[in-house]
């Protein structure tokens, strides 16, 4: 319960910038609530006027009705409109904050959480936050003011009868609290199962070629049906609790009303009460059921929103990537690994006591079977993974002492799995910090990557929008755009992780020439299986299970007739 209050007050803190709108909401709903109470008083007014045949007052009645509706309309507009403004701004602010946080979380978060569940937090869960903040506050203020006004009127008319309603208050509170616990649990389950549904949809869309190629349509439909069915069950259970909660509270209110009416109709109780006052009292008491019913719906909204808030705040409170470095050196490309170890959270040891000294301008090829730890090693250089022990130095600076953005700004990386954005070719090459690059520099980088010719053959050339992940291009074309991006960066350290694997022989020949120019006067670390990519490297490092088993030049390692020689004989196919 204490944690719920903390989460709720933290959520309400986001509404502080909109206090001006909140004042207008309060004024609007106060006007609207006053008209509800005025209905009972107006009824008493017209009955008295008819009984006493006061024609001036009966003539005034139609105008009072119109005025009442006008005031209610103005109040409802102010309350509903500005509460919606607050709600939409709240979603905007939190979504911006969550997305910003996601961009700063360590890579391990994305390994441990599926993209479907992550996007569900950004899209679905944040939308639910409004239920606990602006929507619930709107109902509490609007219906609460009406309830308070009607109760005040009832106490003013006959405080003894009014006490009967208040006696039933604790019973209503007990029912609402029991329902709240159940709804909170079910709301969390609904959000989790929504993440599962989102995950299946994303996987099926991104992997649609595999789904179709291997006839997996039926399998994916069954998966979606299973998760959707689970989401449906949880949603219906939540609905049952919610819809039962309201009639139970209404039944309690009806019992209270029946007791009031029975007592009120006793001659001794009525005393000097006029017929108009009695009808007004009963009318006001009867009108209480509607706002109290609406107040019970707050419970469901509150629990749904609090479950979402817990999920969102849990993400916002996660530690970001460590960026304690303060140095911003201009690197030349000297790299030294000193007894480096990398251990994953599951306990697997990816890199063992790794020692390697790379001088600026050298080309180092990392070879070995799949799972040898080559990609894990280069990920340490850009701090996509953090070392468990040992040190990595760049130009004699400990890598952890270098400011993170400065470090990554001086390392260009081309991965085997190329990611292109749904933007123009130009925007994909000059991405991020490269946005200010001139057209001449972009074209020069594309030419160096032998991408210029096929880019010019596209419908709008460099202004052609590539579509989702650039899937309308061939694998080799996507790879060359990624290489052009790396060349444009002109960083002192270049990492090529299977960067030529998606190219045909002719494309690879041209890319190899381009890299001969790009590799000059910069440190290059190459991960490759193809002989042509690594034979001319200054140092070839053979890795197995995170350890160096051999290192030397191509000729030296061939002469050893060891692990490299065996890989060479198999043409690095294994």
Describe it for me?
64% of the residues lie in helices and 10% in strands. With 574 residues, the protein is of the alpha/beta class. Strands 6-7-8-3-9-10 form a 6-stranded mixed beta sheet, with helices on both faces. A 4-stranded antiparallel beta sheet has the order 2-1-4-5, with helices on one face. The longest helix is centred in the first third of the chain and has 53 residues, at 115-167. The mean pLDDT is 80.
Q: Which features characterize this protein?
A:
four-stranded antiparallel β-sheet, elongated, six-stranded mixed β-sheet, single chain, 574 residues, 64% helix, alpha/beta
Give the helix/strand layout:
Elements: H1 2-12, H2 19-51, H3 55-102, H4 107-112, H5 115-167, H6 169-206, H7 208-213, H8 217-264, H9 267-270, H10 275-287, H11 289-316, E1 335-343, E2 349-358, E3 363-367, H12 374-381, E4 389-394, E5 397-398, H13 404-409, E6 411-414, H14 425-429, H15 439-448, H16 452-456, H17 475-489, E7 493-497, H18 505-518, E8 523-527, H19 531-534, E9 539-544, E10 547-552, H20 554-560, H21 563-569
Parallel strand pairs: 3-8, 3-9, 6-7, 7-8
Antiparallel strand pairs: 1-2, 1-4, 4-5, 9-10
Helix pairs in contact: 1-11, 2-3, 2-5, 2-10, 3-5, 5-6, 5-8, 5-10, 5-11, 6-8, 6-11, 8-11, 15-17, 20-21
């Amino acid at each position: 319960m204490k944690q719920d209050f903390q989460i709720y007050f933290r959520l309400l803190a986001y509404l502080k910038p909109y206090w001006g709108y909140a004042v207008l909401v309060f004024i609007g709903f106060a006007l609207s609530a006053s008209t509800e109470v005025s209905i009972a008083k107006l009824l008493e007014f017209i009955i008295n006027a008819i009984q006493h045949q006061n024609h001036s007052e009966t003539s005034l009645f139609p105008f009072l009705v119109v005025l009442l509706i006008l005031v209610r309309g103005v109040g409802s507009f102010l309350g509903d409109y500005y509460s919606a403004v607050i709600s939409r701004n709240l979603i905007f602010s939190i979504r911006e904050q969550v997305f910003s946080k996601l961009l700063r979380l360590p890579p391990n978060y994305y390994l441990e959480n599926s993209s479907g569940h992550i996007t569900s937090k950004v899209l679905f869960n944040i939308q639910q936050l409004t239920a606990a903040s602006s929507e619930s506050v709107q109902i509490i203020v609007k219906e609460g003011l009406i309830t308070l006004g009607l109760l005040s009127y009832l106490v003013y008319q006959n405080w003894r009868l009014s006490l009967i309603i208040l006696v039933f208050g604790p019973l209503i509170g007990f029912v609402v609290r029991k329902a709240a616990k159940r709804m909170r649990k079910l709301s969390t389950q609904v959000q989790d199962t929504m993440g599962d549904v989102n995950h299946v949809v994303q996987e099926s869309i991104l992997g649609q070629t595999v789904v179709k190629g291997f006839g997996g349509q039926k399998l994916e439909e069954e998966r979606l049906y299973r998760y959707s069915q689970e989401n449906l069950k949880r949603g219906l259970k939540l609905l049952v609790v919610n819809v039962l909660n309201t009639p139970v509270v209404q039944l309690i209110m009806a019992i209270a009303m029946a007791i009031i009416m029975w007592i009120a109709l006793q001659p001794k109780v009525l005393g000097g009460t006029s017929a108009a006052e009695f009808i007004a009292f009963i009318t006001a008491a009867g009108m209480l059921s509607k706002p109290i019913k609406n107040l019970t719906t707050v419970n469901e909204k509150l629990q749904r929103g609090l479950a979402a808030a817990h999920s969102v705040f849990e993400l916002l409170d996660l530690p970001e990537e460590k960026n304690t470095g303060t140095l911003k050196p201009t690197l030349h490309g000297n790299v030294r690994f000193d007894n480096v170890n990398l251990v994953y959270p599951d306990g697997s040891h990816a890199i063992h006591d790794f020692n390697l000294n790379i001088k600026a301008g050298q080309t180092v090829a990392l070879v070995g079977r799949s799972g040898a730890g080559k990609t894990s090693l280069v990920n340490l250089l850009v701090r996509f993974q953090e070392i468990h022990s040992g040190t990595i130095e760049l130009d004699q600076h400990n890598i952890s002492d270098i400011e993170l953005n400065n470090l990554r700004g001086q390392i260009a990386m081309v991965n085997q799995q190329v990611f292109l954005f749904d933007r123009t070719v130009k925007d994909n090459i000059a991405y991020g910090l490269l946005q200010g690059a001139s057209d001449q520099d972009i074209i020069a980088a594309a030419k160096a990557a032998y991408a210029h010719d096929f880019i010019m053959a596209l419908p709008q050339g460099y202004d052609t929008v590539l579509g989702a992940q650039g899937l309308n291009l061939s694998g080799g074309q996507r790879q060359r755009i990624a290489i052009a991006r790396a060349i444009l960066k002109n960083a002192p350290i270049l990492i090529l992780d299977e960067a030529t694997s998606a190219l045909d022989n002719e494309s690879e020949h041209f890319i190899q020439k381009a890299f001969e120019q790009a590799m000059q006067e910069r440190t290059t670390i190459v991960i490759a299986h193809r002989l042509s990519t690594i034979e001319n490297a200054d140092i070839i490092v053979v890795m197995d299970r995170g350890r160096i088993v051999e290192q030397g030049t191509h000729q030296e390692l061939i002469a050893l007739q060891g692990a490299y020689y065996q890989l060479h004989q198999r043409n690095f196919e294994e």
